[in-house]
Structures are given as structure tokens and as C-alpha cells.
Specification:
Length: 226
């Protein structure tokens, strides 16, 4: 990868990117509240289960398809996979999360003038912009290799999950870094799965996670928005 593309990827995957990723736990806060996640071992198990059952089989494959769609200026495919992703959010919190972050990243892409008019026209033609669509648009505009975008997105997701555990379980900083380091093989496998999975095999079936998300909507005390 060229150094410029690497720097662009680091910027897109950074927790400092002002799209609000830090404010979401994706059901993890409830799992910590009810004791399902209580230490480093259970945190690792939670993250791997979420990665394998949801992210690698739905979210990452859709990002992969959106990267290809934006790269080929295929507006119909962008609309199809964006709508698919939003429809796959099965709670109000999960839907609001991707729409909020997608809007914020899409606005950033526009304000920074990094995309050509054709890419922007496709992005702006979406009634609602999920995060993967905005990320794919930004990455294609900045000419970051698709495989690298996929891995960067997966790492950013895992890092945010680990940060939630560090702050809320709580885990120590060293334990958090050890946990993140231990996820390397699983993240690489998720990236391979996302690239190879056929359309008919996509699935976000995780009823336990959906129930936790619904419980979070009425949780008495919350630090996170999901």
C-alpha cells in the first residue's frame, strides 16, 4: 500500500474521527450490566461471538460490496446494499446508530471535499446513509485498497468494543491491549469471510444480541447510546 493510502486508512479508522463511534457499545453495555461480560475472558468471548455471527456474515460483507459499487459508480448497487444494511438493523438503537454515524461521515466527506462529483452524487442520492456506505465512499475517494479498508473497519470495530470493556467492566489498559492483540487471527478470518461470502449466505441472525439491544433502550443508567 502506498504511504498516502495508509495514512488515509489510519485517519478513517481512527477513534478520533468525529462520527461518534465512541458513544455506542452495540449491546455490550447490557451484557456488562447483567454480568455476561465480567472479565477479560468473557469479554473476548463476547467480541468473538459478535464478530463471527454478525459482523463477518453481514456488516463486513456489505461494506465489501459497497466498496465495489462506489468504485464502479454503480448507483443501483449502492442503493440496494445500503437499504439492505439498514433493513438488517433489527432494533431502533442499532438503526439509529448506523444512520447517525453514516450522516456524520457523509457530511465530513462533503465538507473536506475529498470525493469527486460522481461519488458525491451517488452518496447524496441515498435517503438515509448507513455508516458502511459513507465509509465506502470516503475510502474509494481516497483510493485506499478495498482489502485494507475492510481490515481497518474490522479493527476499528474491535477496538471500540475493547474500549467499552476497559471503561465499563472495567479492565486494565494492559488487559485491553492484550485482548485486542489476541483478536488478530479472528479479524483476519472475518475479512476473508466477508470477501468470499455469497449474497444468499449473508445473515445477521443473533436474537440474543437483539434482545440485549432492546433491554438497553429501557436500561435505567446508561453511558452509551446502544
Amino acid at each position: 500500500m502506498q504511504s498516502s493510502a495508509l495514512l488515509h486508512l489510519l485517519q478513517l479508522a481512527s477513534p478520533a474521527l468525529p462520527i461518534g463511534a465512541y458513544s455506542y457499545s452495540q449491546g455490550l453495555e447490557v451484557a456488562i450490566e447483567n454480568g455476561t461480560v465480567r472479565d477479560e475472558t468473557s469479554a473476548r468471548s463476547w467480541i468473538i461471538d459478535h464478530l463471527q455471527q454478525v459482523v463477518a456474515h453481514c456488516e463486513a460483507p456489505i461494506l465489501w460490496r459497497l466498496l465495489q459499487a462506489f468504485a464502479s459508480d454503480d448507483s443501483a448497487a449502492v442503493h440496494y446494499w445500503s437499504d439492505y444494511f439498514i433493513a438488517a438493523r433489527d432494533t431502533a438503537e442499532f438503526r439509529a446508530e448506523t444512520i447517525q454515524m453514516g450522516y456524520s461521515l457523509g457530511k465530513l466527506v462533503t465538507d473536506l471535499h475529498i470525493a469527486d462529483p460522481q461519488l458525491l452524487a451517488i452518496l447524496h442520492s441515498l435517503t438515509e446513509v448507513p455508516l458502511p456506505a459513507a465509509l465506502a465512499c470516503a475510502a474509494v475517494a481516497l483510493q485506499v485498497p478495498h482489502e485494507s479498508v475492510l481490515l481497518g473497519s474490522l479493527f476499528s470495530w474491535a477496538e471500540n468494543q475493547v474500549i467499552v470493556c476497559v471503561k465499563s467492566v472495567p479492565l486494565g489498559q494492559v488487559a485491553g491491549q492484550r485482548l485486542l492483540l489476541s483478536l488478530r487471527a479472528e479479524l483476519e478470518l472475518a475479512a476473508v469471510t466477508a470477501q468470499q461470502l455469497p449474497d444468499h449466505a449473508l445473515s445477521s441472525w443473533a436474537p440474543g444480541l437483539s434482545l440485549l439491544s432492546m433491554q438497553h433502550e429501557v436500561q435505567y443508567s446508561r453511558l452509551y447510546r446502544s
